[in-house]
Known about the structure:
The protein has helices spanning about 35-40, 115-120, 125-130, 175-185; strands at about 10-15, 20-25, 25-30, 50-55, 60, 65-70, 75, 80-85, 100-110, 110, 135-140, 140-145, 155-160, 160-170, 195, 205, 210-215, 220-230. It is mainly β. It has one domain: Fumarylacetoacetate hydrolase, domain 2 (Alpha-Beta Complex), CATH 3.90.850. A six-stranded mixed sheet has the order 4-3-15-8-9-12, with no helix packed on it. The longest helix has 9 residues, at about 115-120. Manganese (II) ion binds near residues 28, 198 and 199.
Amino acid sequence: MTLLFDPQPPVLAPTSDGRFFPVRRIFCIGRNYEEHAREMGDKADPEAPFFFTKWAETVVGDGATIAYPQGTSNFHYEAELVVAIHRPGRNIPRERALDHVWGYAAGLDMTRRDLQSEARAKQRPWDAGKNVEQSSPLGLIHPASALGDATKGALTLTVNGVERQRGDLSQMITPVDRLIAFLSGLYRLEAGDLIYTGTPAGVGAVVPGDVIVVAVQGLTSLTITVGQHDQ
Length: 231
Ligand code: MN
């Protein structure tokens, strides 16, 4: 068998025990904190969580400099708790959901807000706003024992040392176990899947040179620098 070209190697996310988590797919939950839903001009609906997806290759690690992406003049941060799935399953009941979680990390769902808002207004898909190269920074993944059931703990974000977001995991409208039950009712969740669980209020724009730090209580913080414009 002759390949036409070399395939992309798997995306490997480091874990706190010195191993690597091979990333398979990324599910991102929208409007999972009431105050953020409101700042986006919407209401959160606990009965109807929704999601979008990103390519695995959008993951970058702690300490990375991400290029300011082309096609936008309003590039936003969203600090999020990320869930790392290691056990496959379909129609996973809420009571068994956490058995499928290997661990948790601090993450960023970087967003071309102007393109997302335009898509929203026209009732079109969000891909251009959300699924962007280097748009899914991910911190060190800690085993689930570091966070327990991930139902409480501070989640904060600073830009250049100034706090811009502060929330608590207890404010999630749909908590982690219900998110897993929900997604696995639509897909067979697979080992390597990541779930970005939504962001608290305070999202905003960054410019080249900005340094973003995401901290989730109990986890290693994530530091990302915004680089020059992608050419
Ligand atoms: Mn998000």
